[in-house]
Amino acid sequence: MDRIGLRAAEPHEAAAITELARRSKAHWGYSPDFLALVRDMLTVHPDEIREDRVVVADHAGTLLGYYRLEGRPPNGELADLFVEPRAIGTGLGRRLWEHAVASARKRGFRQLELESDPNAESFYRHMGAERVGEFEAASGRLLPIMRIELTGPD
């Protein structure tokens, strides 16, 4: 974990980031039909990798996770946070979360909201986010809407 660096993603990494997101989602045992349904939602395009809003966790050239921030101050959105399945449970998700929160604060965000996968809701609660509602996704599932207020020091 110590040798994993966090850095801004580069546009040419969009396909690798997309594949990581799809592997991470598949880790939770979703059916092939469901994964096909959300395929486009799990696609990161090169033009979305801008302004250091997509950050990857890199270990010797291998991507192990990433997050993507969206929005304009004061309201930010954690659009994505995915971890390579073999790195789940290693603390990398926490490290990405903490980096995303610090980055959001530096950008002037006062709150960060996200639509959580139901399997990840407990992780976000543990990180200090609270459930503030639900969203009906295109897949027909109800997704928890989570929010964290970004007050205090980084």
Automatic annotation (TrEMBL):
Residues 4-151 form the N-acetyltransferase domain. It comes from the Bacteria. The keyword Cell division does not apply. This is GNAT family N-acetyltransferase. Its EC number is 2.3.-.-. SUPFAM superfamilies: Acyl-CoA N-acyltransferases (Nat) (SSF55729). One of its GO terms (molecular function) is acyltransferase activity. It comes from Amycolatopsis pigmentata. It holds the Pfam family Acetyltransf_10. Keywords: Acyltransferase, Transferase.
